Amino acid sequence: MNTNDLSSFNNYESEVRSYVRGFPTVFHKAKGYKLWDMDGKEYVDFFSGAGALNYGHNDEKMKQKVIEYIQEDGVIHSLDMASKAKAEFLEAFHDIILKPRSLDYKIMFPGPTGTNTVEAALKLARKVTGRTNVVSFTNGFHGMTIGALSVTGNAFKRKGAGIPLNHTVSMPYDKYLGANDLGLEYFERFLEDGGSGLDKPAAVILETVQGEGGLNAARMEWIKEVDRICKAHDILLIIDDVQAGVGRTGTFFSFEPAGIKPDIICLSKSIGGNGSPLALTLIKPEYDKFAPGEHNGTFRGNNLAFVAATQSFQYWKDDALEKNVQTKAERIHAFLEKMISEYPELKGSHRGRGFMQGVFCNVEGLADKITDKCFEHGLIMETAGPNDEVFKLFPPITIDDEGLETGLKLLEQSIKDTVS
Ligand code: PMP
């Protein structure tokens, strides 16, 4: 293949039944925050593989480590057997990530994807408590398998299950995720209402910033209060940090500023370092109740991902990366506020925090039009929200000033061209 011809992907008549995301080109090469297509056209990547590429494409040091490992015939697939790469990964994750944050967790490999870690977390919470219901939130996104989908608050996605997914309690998002009202007070009363006959839930699952659901960011006080209620009622708190974790919000774990220690933490996407599939379920030691073999699978620990991931933790040995995200997040926020005020046609309002920010456009279809225009101008960006109302800035967290400013300039041009 040597052209940007998409027919082999998109031709439903052909034997190759597939489809591709709505960027009409064929990508070929990538480095850092840049991508190139088959014609050599350059794109700035403000999508980062939906959060799987927090360190950008082909980080040089990770790449070298993986090349060395392959050249030495390092074992690639080893199921859940012990391997040197796995041992080094576990040691680095413990020493660089968990220990300095005083986090004491058992580390489980639930399978290669975000959905797998959520699935494991739900099973475990039910096994530990012997209860069924799980409380989740409208617009929350947790994955596509039946269990993970049952806690996903998106009507369209739920329809894909083909059956009613009714073993959860879904809380309306606005009232509970950071709004200045009595949302949590109501939630607690609901839990204490013995007269309702409703079963006490096993767990609450939430994203601190809803990645797919529209970049709705929970206030830290709200997160603390959810944590307190869970403890008071003996309900497990599962934080799904699949998208918001691994530095995306400015700290390794997105919940760090709230000072909580969730019972179960779900990680995937960028935990694999260079985009390799890897997922972790972090479990408080007292809840480490799966018997050996009770939750298994073939792809639970890809050694190439371990090698890249071990190298990625070097970024966390000092606070340079955290500072980069925190400083540039302020710049992104200021830029977006400027766009909102300079372009009233957006009917825009700001969403998110850290490197998970965007603008909710209260005009049907506008956010999609803007991201289409971005693509024309050489900027890869996605939309989020139940009706794709939010355009979403998701640059790699390693991006430099030049990369960020280039992307912002392309975005401004795209907004201008779309609304005028
Ligand atoms: N949880 C969250 C918060 C996610 O954003 C995603 C993916 N967008 C998932 C779970 C599911 O991950 P995966 O697509 O790797 O199965």
From TrEMBL:
- SUPFAM superfamilies (alphabetical): PLP-dependent transferases (SSF53383)
Quick one: which pathway? Amine and polyamine biosynthesis; ectoine biosynthesis; L-ectoine from L-aspartate 4-semialdehyde: step 1/3
**EC number from the UniProt entry:** 2.6.1.76
What are the GO MF terms of this UniProt record?
diaminobutyrate-2-oxoglutarate transaminase activity; diaminobutyrate-pyruvate transaminase activity; pyridoxal phosphate binding
InterPro entries reported in the protein's UniProt record: Aminotrans_3, Aminotrans_3_PPA_site, Dat, Ectoine_EctB, PyrdxlP-dep_Trfase, PyrdxlP-dep_Trfase_major, PyrdxlP-dep_Trfase_small
Question: Which UniProt keywords are listed?
Answer: Aminotransferase, Pyridoxal phosphate, Transferase
CDD domains xref list: OAT_like (cd00610)
User: What cofactor is needed?
Assistant: pyridoxal 5'-phosphate
Q: Which Pfam families does UniProt cross-reference here?
A: Aminotran_3
BP term (GO), one: ectoine biosynthetic process
Give the family from UniProt: Belongs to the class-III pyridoxal-phosphate-dependent aminotransferase family.
Supply the name of the protein.
Diaminobutyrate--2-oxoglutarate transaminase
Species classification: Bacteria, Bacillati, Bacillota, Bacilli, Bacillales
